[in-house]
Every structure is written in C-alpha cells, then in structure tokens.
Design brief:
The chain is an all-alpha fold. It is about 50% helix and about 0% strand. It folds into three domains: about 35 residues, no CATH class; about 130 residues; about 140 residues, Calponin-like domain (Actin-binding Protein, T-fimbrin, domain 1, Orthogonal Bundle). Helix 6 packs antiparallel against helix 7. About 15% of the residues are buried.
C-alpha cells in the first residue's frame, strides 16, 4: 500500500478546468530562422559585452550565456537557482469545481418555460378621448350641481353637518375644476377661447378658487363655508358659465356664416371662376367689397380693377390670414407684413409673403413676378397674377370644404 508524506499536497480528485488565462508556452523556431537570427544576436551581444567590459571590467555579463533562439540560459551563476523562485501569483492551487463558472448552466426549475402567450402581444384597449361636446356637457353638469349646496340651510351648532357639507362642496368643486381644465386644454380652437378670456386670467381665477378650497379644508370646515369663500366660488362659476355662453354664441355665428357660403354647395361648372370669386368675397375681411371682375386676357387696359386692388399685396395677405383663421388647421398665417405700401419694394414683399405662405400652408406653388406686377412691366405678368390668384382660391376652397365635410360625418 503506497503511503504519502504529510508535506506532500493531496492529489486532485478530478482535472479542473481553468478559464481566463493561458500560461505562455515556448516556441520551437525553424533551423533557417535560428541561423538567420544568430548573426544579429552575436553582434548585439558583442556590442553589449564590449560596452559593459569598459565600464566594469571583469564582471560576467548576462548576454554571454543567453540567446533567444538557441535555448534557455544558465541562470545558476546569477543566483537564479531552484531555491530562489517564488510561487506564481496566478497559481491558486487546487480549487473547488463549483467555483468555476459554466457557460451552460442548468435552467432554474422555478422559471417556467415559454409558452404561446409569452410571445403573444395583447393590445390593450385605449379609451377614445372625449369630444368637445362631452366635455362641455360635463362642465355644465358640474356647474349646475354646485348651486344646490350653497342654497341649503346651515345650522349654527352642528360641526358634523359643516364637515359633511364642506366635503360635498369640495368634491363637486374638484370635479368642476377638472372639467373646466379638460374643456380649456382640449378645445379645438384655443385662440377663440383666448379672445373670450385670456389664459392668464383663467389661470389666476383657477388658482384663487383652489386656494380658497385648501384653506377651508385645512380648518376642517369649522363654522361652515364662509360668505367670502362662497363669493369666490360663485364668481368662478359665473366666469365659467359666461365663457361657455360666449363660446356657444361664436360657434352659432360661425355656423350661420358657413350656411351663407354659396361656393360650399351647388353644382358648379368646371373652370367657372364665379365660384372662386364667391370664395374671395366670403373670405374677404375688408368692409369694402371687391371690384367687379374682368378677365385679364380680354381686357383692353391692364391691370383690371380687381388686379389693381391686389397689386400692393396687402389684401392678398389679409385674405390668406382670414382663410387660415376659418380653417380647422390654424397655422401658417403671415405674422408681419407691410401696411404702408407707397414704396414699390414693400408691395413686392407683400406679394412674395403671400406666395411663400401659400406654398408652406396650402402646398400650392404660385408663379408670380412681384416686381413685374408692381412696376407693370408687361401684360403677361397680370395674366400670370390672375391665374395664381384663382389657383390659390381653388386649393384653399377645396381644403376648407373637405374639413367641413369630415366634421359633419
């Protein structure tokens, strides 16, 4: 029976696998490479030996016994014997096989395998946003519910009743504030609401009534709702009701105006400019009516009265802004333009503004010679100018008609 000494380490039970580091191995060079490198190494060793001997004569050199291709040098003379080596810092000795990471670990039994539902994407139903009519109905209902708590009799010595009444008013006011906020932020035409009441005033009134509710709830509605608090809440409710009434009045006026648009309905012949002229008259914000129309191709004297009215570009810019205001997509208006068009370059700029805005907002390219129109260079510029005006009318009219048709469906 074989025996082992106590100093010897126990043998490994199984061959362990090390990962992450590979010990460098020696390279066996070919004979041709070994002979080729020999001359260079001998020359380098000779140069080092001669220099070292001049500085320290008689001292043995390390290069005398070392050649990188010939083999390992004799290191015993330089005190590199077997007893002078230390253990490698990366040689950790025998390790437990469980300490090593295995790329192919066994699956966790607690994790269920994937099924069909794992990869089946379920679309969650999203509720549609409320319409403006529904928001208006909610706001009216919340406003009407707020009138009853203020009119109820108030006992003088019942704190419990004060708390019940205060919580009821707080709930109804919170619902009304939420309905007003939703109505104001989701309105299709916020600029119309801004004309009724500026947003800054709306926010100030809303913060005031919320502060009143906070103070009333902080004191636990002791003594009931005070008269000044009731006055603040009633003033806010009256302001909301006034805004709703004015908004409805403006909406009714717009519907009556759309009902008077003859170009919106009817059977019109192809290429009939009377429909475009009716569109121009309905969109014109000026008090003075447009001059009578005379075709530029048949006119003996150019410009015609209608084209002369459009020559400075100011009325075209106002027509464009009016059409943008009456459309559902209210963007692309011309913010700055020249009102004093005595100088020719200002009139030319207005025409350029109108043509560029038509390209950006209505996506229609217009061929106009702004300077030629201002200086009346040739009859052709007026013919092109008239064609551009009617082309713009047709494009804007078609877009507004399609928007109104979609809203009525």
């Amino acid at each position: 029976m074989a025996t082992t000494s106590a100093d010897e380490p126990p043998p490994l039970e199984a061959k362990t696998r090390r990962r992450g580091f590979v010990r460098p191995q020696g390279t066996d060079f070919a004979a041709s490479a070994r002979s080729r490198e020999t001359g260079q190494e001998e020359e380098a060793a000779g140069n080092a030996r001669s220099g070292r001997s001049r500085v320290h004569p008689g001292l043995p050199t390390f290069t005398d016994a070392y050649s990188p291709l010939a083999g390992s040098p004799d290191l015993s003379a330089a005190n590199f014997g077997p007893g002078h080596f230390t253990e490698s810092p990366i040689d950790e000795g025998p390790m437990d096989p469980d300490d090593y990471y295995d790329d192919f670990e066994e699956p966790d039994p607690n994790i269920l395998p994937p099924t069909v539902s794992t990869y089946n994407k379920v679309e969650k139903p999203v509720a549609r946003p409320p319409t403006i009519d529904e928001l208006k109905s909610d706001l009216k209902g919340a406003s009407s519910e707020l009138t009853s708590p203020f009119d109820s009799p108030r006992p003088k010595t019942s704190q419990g009743w004060f708390e019940v009444q205060g919580m009821h008013i707080l709930d109804v006011m919170t619902f009304a504030i939420r309905a007003a906020k939703m109505y104001y932020t989701a309105h299709e035409k916020p600029d119309r609401l801004d004309t009724i009441k500026p947003e800054k005033e709306v926010r100030a009134d809303l913060l005031t009534v919320m502060d009143v509710l906070k103070h009333a709830a902080t004191r636990d509605f002791a003594g009931g709702i005070r008269n000044d608090e009731v006055a603040y809440m009633e003033a806010w409710l009256n302001g909301v009701s006034t805004m709703l009434q004015r908004d409805e009045a403006i909406e009714d006026a717009e519907q009556q105006e759309r009902a008077s648009w003859s170009w919106l309905h009817g059977d019109w012949a192809e290429g009939d400019v009377s429909r475009e002229l009716a569109f121009l008259r309905s969109m014109d914000p000026e008090a003075d009516p447009l001059p009578a129309y005379t075709p530029a191709r048949d006119a003996a004297d150019l410009p015609t009265p209608l084209l002369r009215e459009m020559q400075n570009g100011l009325r075209l810019v106002k027509l464009h802004n009016a059409a943008v205001h009456k459309s559902q997509r209210r963007f692309g208006a011309i913010p700055t333009f020249h009102t004093d068009t005595q100088k020719p370059y200002r009139a030319a700029d207005n025409i350029r503004y109108w043509a560029k805005a038509a390209e950006l907002r209505w996506e229609v390219a217009l061929k106009v010679d702004a300077l030629g129109i201002v200086y009346n260079n040739s009859p052709q510029v007026w013919i092109d100018f008239e064609d551009a005006i009617f082309k713009w009318c047709q494009k804007v009219r078609e877009e507004i008609s399609s928007e109104l048709a979609q809203n009525t469906v």
